[in-house]
Amino acid sequence: MRIGITCYPTHGGSGVVATELGKHLAHWGHEVAFISYSTPLRLGDIPERVSFHEVEAVEYPLLKNYPYTLALASKMIAVARMKGLQLLHVHYAIPFAPAALMAKYAAPELDLKVVTTLHGTDITLVGNDPTFRPMTKWAIEQSDAVTAVSCSLRDQAREEFEIERQMDVVYNFIDPERHERPCPGCIAPRSSPDEVTLMHISNFRPVKRVEDVVRVLAHVRKRMPARLILVGDGPTACTALQVALSLGVADSVQFTGVVEEVEPVLQQADLLLLPSETESFGLVALEAMASGIPVIASDVGGIPEVVTHGEVGFLAPVGDVEKMGEHAVHLLSDRELYHRFSRAARQRAGSLFGYNKIVREYERIYAQVLELPMKETLPHLEGG
Ligand code: GMT
Question: Measured between alpha carbons, how far is 367 from 19 in angstroms, rounded to an integer?
Fold first, then answer.
């Protein structure tokens, strides 16, 4: 198949998932063209059967707000012609799904199909803002296929936008091998051998509730030596520091800033904390699990579909930092329980969320919209 993929080319989960999906599809024999305003960060050296096409900004004094959606739609048409694309798979509804539909309707001779993957805030925060709502609803209804990264997100999209059409749930995925590579020298020294390491990785937007992460650290420190590694950057990083100072735990907090790859830093963690206000999936929780790191998270959105309470981590109501702290202490003070959770986390991540299973689900959806028999779409399975 010849597939165009559009995503935010950043460190965010939707960009990571879209980029890894494209790389795996190309590895399996499909042609993949990424269309975006810059090269997706996770693309690295451009692999065989993958191309990248940049949407260029046009500067003109009259264009006070550069119409990126139009430029993207035009680029989608140009790339579809050049590469003979059969479908456009867009990750994050706004503004990519309307752009792909514009491309489809403006160039009917190309017979392009549009697959839209909903990632979370495109439904829960951005896409349902009155500024975008009618376009989000239209794009969901008009796409040839729509997927959501969790049952919770699919149901929210249904309810929020009064959508009746079929929407498939295709979970996010990891490559278990990436989490098995030893990383000598990655382990930053602890100040004492019995000090535990809590970790939080995010874009530090208010929805992540980073101040709760610091409060959990303060709770744990009352019972055992502990440090907190904050990975990433964003608007609430300063808030986290202020809370740490006011609670007297700032000496135990380290800020790494944005990192290229999460797998090596995860090797430094004993527990991952994800106390978000809302989370459609929580890719970072899955990445931690794949590294054998149990997760303490809030019981919201799609998180319980990933992190099973009492098996691979513990969940607590949003904002209940006492409960999260108690769970952390409980897990970290019982060696046997901790190792059981760690093994179960790695096992669950690999068996339910491995790329082999999930990328194949996307292939099945592509085959369906293109009306291809599935056999033709699986060159990687032939002879093997
Ligand atoms: O807005 C964000 O938080 C970023 C967004 C993204 O583009 O990565 O995150 C959403 O998509 C991820 C990938 O599917 C999910 O793992 C995150 O849970 C989701 N974020 C929220 O729902 C807040």
Answer: 20
Residues 197 and 333 in one domain: yes
Q: How far is the CA of 371 from the centre of ligand 1 (A)?
A: 31
CB-ligand 1 contact for 19 (6 Å cutoff): no
CB-based contact 160:128 (threshold 8 Å):
yes
For residue 88, give the nearest of 47, 137, 139, 42 by alpha carbon: 139
- Percent of the chain surpassing pLDDT 90: 85
**pLDDT tens per residue, range 159-207:** 999 999 999 999 999 999 989 876 766 667 777 878 999 999 999 999 9
- Asked whether residue 383 is assigned to any structural domain, the reply reads no
Q: 3-class SS at 152?
A: helix
**Which of 90, 118, 121, 236, when mutated, tests ligand 1's pocket best, judged by the most ligand atoms within 8 Å of its CB?**
121
- Compute, in angstroms, the gap from residue 279 CA to the centroid of ligand 1: 7
The encoded tokens of residue 124 equal 């829960």
Dihedral through CA 372, CA 378, CA 379, CA 383, nearest 10? -120
| CA 252, chain centre distance (Å) | 28
Region of 9 on the Ramachandran plot (φ > 0 left; ψ -120 to 50 alpha; else beta): alpha
pLDDT in tens, 332-381: 999 999 999 999 999 999 999 999 999 999 999 999 999 998 765 555 54
Q: What is the CATH number of the domain that holds 61?
A: 3.40.50.2000
Domain of residue 29 covers 2-173+354-377
* Total count of residues recorded for the chain: 384
